[in-house]
Amino acid sequence: MRGVIDMSLLQWIHRKRNLVLAVSLALGVAMLSGCGGSGGSGGKGKTNLTIGMTNAPAGFNPLFNPDIVGQFTLRFMYDTLLGMPEPNKFTPQLADSFDTQDNQNFTIKLNEKAKWSDGQPITAEDVVFTLNTIANPSVETTKGSYICMLDGVNNVGKLESGEKIPGLEAKDEHTVVLRTKRPVDPNYIKSMLGFEVYIIPKHVFEKINPADIGTSEAVTKPSVTSGTYKFVDYKTNDHVELASNDEYYKGTPKLKKVFLKVMNGTNLVTELKSGNVQLAAAGGIGVIPIKDLDVLKKDSKLDVKTSPSLNTQYLEINNQNPAFNVKFRRAVTMAINRQQLCDDLYKGTAQLVPTVYTLVSPVYDKSVTPLPFDVEKAKEELAASGFDTSKEITLQVPIGNVLREQSADLIQQNLQAIGLQVKQQKLDFPSVLANAKKGDYEMMLLGYALNADPDYSQYFVPGGGSNFGHTNDAKLTEMMTNAALMTNADERKAAYSEIQTYMRDNQFVVSLYETDQIMAQSKKLKGGIKDFWEGSLDDLYNWHFE
Question: Domain spanning 79-213 has what CATH number?
Answer without folding.
Answer: 3.90.76.10
